[in-house]
């Protein structure tokens, strides 16, 4: 969540404080809206900081309708407030409410002008061009009221932060882990006069620079040995590993970039350690051992480019001549898409030959002997497993 605080001067010279939290969730906006737009007691599972939520006029007004009033309790720090729903629009994904009353411990806090706005905006992310939703939570309040300012920034904001954490677990959960053992690098570029002081930063495609991990600095070498291991959590958009190299500068200026190497996960197999030598985009190579381990039922996250490369149009095979064309490649793509496994071309050739045989002789089979697609997939999966 990105915190932000500003002071707005309105007509008449009255100043309003404005506190904002923003979070990006990798999910369609309509689905996120259905998750966050609840105003009643069931919202407690989305806002773990709330200890109790009670609807005060639910007999007169239905859930989601303007005028609904709820009372919210927090235990630590102790606070109670009443909040009226002023707008809940599923077409624009906008929810607005205003505070009716508020108390912290035994102290009653003026709430005039305190408004809470939750807005959602859908877009496509830059990593794999899949839907994402930006959630913006804003609380406007009287800046001349220090107690309300403290309550908003320390209590209300904590409540929305807990909601954002729940959203992250709901829509961007960890699906596996990637273990990277960085052995070393060879023939790196010379960043200083005669040599370099290199180190390596590791991050996944969906990680910010601040989340990157890094090796130790190796002084005076372009052939460093690190032998350091890192474990990174995989999420649905962790579609590649990025290893960036820098020359450490001890005199205060920025460290000079020395190039980077990237690893797409279509080269990996679940549960298998692989030794790789990856080329940098400038000069040299990096030596790593990687192991990807997915949680039960989860697929290896792949970039759109990998999916396009593996997913092919079904070719027309000639069963009489045995020409399978691109069918093995197509089968490899379908196994990746449907089952989440990456099968070598050799095994796919066997599966394609079997498909060609069944296609050629399907006219001679009885109706009872026709195999369904689901049965074929399960049988092929068992053969590959055996």
Are there runs of 5+ residues with pLDDT below 50, and where? Answer: 1-13, 312-322, 364-373
Major beta-sheet overview: 9 strands, antiparallel
Number of strands: 17
Rg over CA atoms, rounded to whole Å, is 28 Å
Explained architecture:
The chain is α+β, with helices and mostly antiparallel strands and 386 residues long. The chain contains six helices and 17 strands. The strands form three sheets. Strands 1, 2, 3, 4, 5, 6, 7, 8 and 9 form a nine-stranded antiparallel β-sheet that branches. A four-stranded antiparallel β-sheet has the order 13-10-17-16, with no helix packed on it. A hairpin with a 6-residue loop joins strand 8 and strand 9. The chain starts with a strand and ends with a helix.
Which labels suit this protein?
about 375 residues, four-stranded antiparallel β-sheet, about 35% strand, 17 strands, alpha+beta
């Amino acid at each position: 969540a990105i915190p932000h605080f500003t002071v707005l001067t309105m007509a008449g010279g009255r100043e309003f404080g404005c506190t904002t939290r923003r979070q990006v969730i990798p999910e369609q906006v309509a689905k996120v809206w259905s998750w966050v737009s609840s105003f009643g007691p069931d919202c407690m599972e989305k806002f773990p900081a709330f200890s109790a939520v009670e609807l005060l006029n639910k007999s007169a007004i239905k859930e989601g309708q303007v005028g609904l009033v709820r009372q919210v309790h927090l235990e630590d720090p102790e606070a109670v407030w009443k909040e009226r729903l002023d707008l809940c629009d599923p077409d624009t994904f906008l929810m607005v409410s205003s505070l009716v009353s508020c108390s912290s411990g035994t102290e009653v806090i003026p709430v005039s002008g305190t408004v809470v706005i939750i807005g959602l905006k859908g877009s496509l992310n830059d990593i794999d061009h899949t839907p994402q939703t930006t959630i913006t939570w804003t609380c406007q309040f009287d800046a001349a009221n220090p107690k309300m300012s403290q309550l908003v920034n320390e209590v209300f904001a904590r409540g929305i932060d807990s909601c954002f954490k729940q959203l992250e677990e709901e829509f961007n959960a960890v699906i596996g882990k990637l273990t990277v053992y960085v052995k070393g690098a060879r023939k790196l570029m010379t960043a200083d006069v005669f040599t370099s002081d290199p180190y390596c930063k590791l991050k996944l495609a969906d990680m910010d620079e601040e989340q990157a991990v890094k090796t130790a600095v190796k002084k005076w070498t372009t052939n460093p040995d690190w032998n350091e291991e890192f474990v990174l959590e995989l999420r649905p958009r962790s579609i590649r590993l990025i290893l960036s190299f820098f020359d450490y500068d001890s005199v205060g200026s920025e460290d000079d970039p020395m190039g980077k190497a990237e690893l797409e996960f279509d080269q990996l197999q679940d549960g298998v350690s692989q030794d790789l030598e990856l080329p940098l985009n400038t000069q040299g190579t990096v030596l790593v051992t990687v192991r990807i381990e997915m949680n039960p039922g989860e697929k290896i996250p792949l970039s759109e480019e990998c999916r396009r490369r593996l997913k092919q149009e079904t070719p027309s095979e000639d069963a009489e001549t045995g020409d399978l064309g691109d069918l093995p490649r197509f089968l490899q793509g379908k196994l990746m898409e449907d089952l989440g496994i990456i099968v070598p071309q050799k095994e796919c050739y066997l599966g394609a030959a079997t498909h060609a045989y069944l296609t050629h002789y399907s006219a001679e089979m009885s109706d009872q002997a026709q195999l369904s697609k689901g049965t074929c997939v399960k049988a092929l999966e068992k053969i590959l497993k055996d």
